[in-house]
Write a structure and sequence with these properties.
The protein is an alpha/beta fold. The chain is 40% helix and 16% strand. α7 packs parallel to α8 and α10 packs across α13. It is globular. It starts with 6 loop residues before the first strand and ends with a helix.
Length: 372
């Protein structure tokens, strides 16, 4: 019997396919793969790492020689060569539209999927409508992590291209990402994310300071760092500003720094409330889904894909205002019955609409249509 050809998953340059440093793209790839009907055929290609995940299997990409130019160009050329040697049945390119035309030359008859995790208007080689139209002609399908991203992709495009664009929300395994059982949840309000302006870390810290006096017995916890690692000393002015604001909370505040995903999930499972104060059009933040599956009541800004994820199971703030966020924190934490109701609703929505099995099955349907 002839073995079936592999399905190649192409990671962006500098995306770490290992526990230390793994970001949202890698988490999405691995979560989807674990429940895919094609999991035995999936192969991930990316930059070499010290300790790659075992599943799906990983192929490190050797960059092309220096005369190809920048690191990204050398990586793309190396990826094209690796794929040409592999001859996969399908290639799934994550978050890098400008790889598509080079990979098309190496795989002229192979279906290509462009998997978009961020706003396409802000991606290199994809900012102009003409670029988006040209690249979309080379792909067989585009997978968007929210309808917000799909709408951004299709702005100004002809209707014929729209049939290629699909929405597959991110998901989590709600059988393993679960609330704590057998004991009360901690009186903690969590922020989990990178300490960058877009994620609203400073907004959280400022709101916590305003809510602190009205919430005795509650703690405000910030999990994350500037990047997916901890530095000896913070260097970025924004990060220093966030740390200074959190330090004003004294014993009522905690900063853990960067934590591996499993450790952060353990904190979600124990906490009462999670805050997703995104200040940008956040496409489909995994932290929001993880908080919901963990049974946290959620407070969020109404940005990007957050309304799609949260539906009517979260409290939204309509402006980026520390006073408004503090008021929502106090409102939720001070009403035990309402808090329990919001926690239950968030968990229920995660199980019904955001489980990874549902998301993976949707992605597999797209793959199957292209393979057929």
């Amino acid at each position: 019997m002839i073995a079936a050809k592999p399905l190649a998953i192409v990671l962006p340059h500098r995306e770490a396919y290992q526990v230390n440093g793994a970001g949202a793209v890698v988490s999405c790839v691995r979560d989807m793969a674990a429940h895919s009907r094609y999991r035995e055929r999936l192969v991930v290609l990316g930059d070499p790492v010290a300790e790659p995940f075992a599943e799906p299997p990983f192929i490190p990409v050797e960059k092309a020689p220096w005369f190809y130019g920048r690191q990204t160009a050398r990586y793309c050329e190396g990826m094209a060569r690796a794929l040409r040697a592999m001859q996969p049945a399908l290639a799934e390119v994550h978050n890098r539209p400008y790889y598509i035309e080079r990979l098309r030359k190496s795989l002229p008859g192979t279906p290509l999927i462009l998997y978009l995790h961020n706003d396409p208007h802000k991606m290199r080689g994809f900012t102009r409508l003409a670029d988006r139209v040209r690249i979309m002609r080379h792909v067989s399908a585009a997978v968007c992590v929210s309808d917000y991203i799909r709408r951004r992709l299709l702005e100004g495009m002809e209707s014929a291209v729209s049939d290629k664009a699909h929405v597959v929300l991110n998901g989590v395994d709600t059988s393993t990402v679960t609330p704590v059982t057998g004991r009360p949840r901690h009186k903690e309000i969590l922020f989990v994310g990178r300490l960058i302006p877009e994620k609203g870390a400073l907004l959280f810290a400022q709101a916590a300071r305003k809510a602190q006096a009205r919430l005795p017995g509650w703690r405000f916890v910030m999990i994350g760092a500037l990047a997916f690692r901890n530095e000896a000393q913070p260097q970025h002015p924004y990060e220093k500003q966030v740390i200074a604001a959190m330090q004003q909370l004294g014993a009522h505040g905690e900063m853990t720094g960067y934590m591996p995903r499993r450790a952060a999930l353990d904190r979600f499972a124990e906490a009462a409330i999670a805050v997703i104060p995104s200040l940008w059009e956040d496409p489909c933040p995994l932290a929001a889904i993880e908080a919901m599956a963990s049974g946290c009541a959620v407070i969020a800004t109404r940005r990007g894909g957050l309304p799609e994820i949260l539906g009517d199971t979260a409290l939204f703030i309509e402006r980026d205002d520390p006073d408004l966020l503090a008021e929502k924190m106090v409102q939720l934490a001070s009403d035990e019955h309402a808090l329990a109701r919001w926690q239950s609703q968030a968990r229920e929505r995660a199980v019904q609409a955001l489980d990874i099995r549902r998301a993976s099955a949707q992605l597999d349907e797209i793959r199957q249509q292209l393979l057929d």
